[in-house]
Amino acid sequence: MNSKLYNLDLLDLISELYIRLRSLNNQLWHQSHDLHISNSEWFIMARIYKKQVTISYVARQMEISRQATHKFIKNLESKGLVEINKAQHNNKDKCIQLTQLGEECFEQNKAIRETLEAKIIASIGAEQADQLVQILNMDWGLDDTSALQVYESR
C-alpha cells in the first residue's frame, strides 16, 4: 500500500483515490487532445450520452444550482460539445444533447477510462475488483440522517 495513503481514514482514502483517478484520466486525455473538459462537464456528458434530456434534469442529477449547471452547459456549447433546443413538451424548458463531436469526445474518454479500469483490475485482481464494485454499489445508509444525529448527541 502507498505509504501516503496508509494512515488515512475511509473517507479521505476514497477521496484521495478519486482525485488521483480523475487527475490521471485528465492527463491521459490531454496527451492526445487540446480541448479542456472539466470533471463537471464530463459528468454532464455522461448523463446525456445518447439521450436528449432537459436542462432541469441535468441540474437535478448534478445536485448543484441551476445557475451553475447552466454555466457548465454554456461552456460545453461554446466548445461545440452539446446543442441546446427548446423542449417539445414545454416552451420554458430546454433540452440538451451531445453533438457528434461531443459523442466522439465522450467515447474517446470512455476508452481511456476502460484502460484505467483494466489497469486497476490487473493490479488488484478481478475478484477483488468485483467485490469493490459490489461494495461501492451497496446502500451505505448515507441518506439516513439518524447517523448524523448520533454524532450530534456526543
Description:
It is built from 8 helices and 3 strands, in the order αααβααββααα. It has helices at residues 3-6, 10-32, 39-48, 55-62, 66-78, 100-124, 126-137, 146-152, and strands at 53-54, 82-86, 94-98. It has a 3-stranded antiparallel sheet with strand order 1-3-2. Helices cover 66% and strands 8% of the residues. The chain is globular, with a radius of gyration of 19 Å. Strand 2 (82-86) and strand 3 (94-98) form a beta hairpin. The chain starts with a helix and ends with a helix. The mean pLDDT is 89. With 154 residues, it is mostly helical.
Describe this structure in a few short sentences:
By secondary structure, the chain is mainly α. The protein contains 8 helices and 3 strands.
Radius of gyration: 19 Å
Shape field = globular
Give the count of helical stretches: 8
Distance between the termini: 34 Å
Low-confidence stretches: none
The succession of helices and strands, N to C, reads HHHEHHEEHHH
List keywords for this structure.
154 residues, single chain
SSE topology sketch:
Elements (H helix, E strand, L loop, with lengths): L2 H4 L3 H23 L6 H10 L4 E2 H8 L3 H13 L3 E5 L7 E5 L1 H25 L1 H12 L8 H7 L2
Antiparallel strand pairs: 1-3, 2-3
Helix pairs in contact: 2-6, 4-5, 6-7
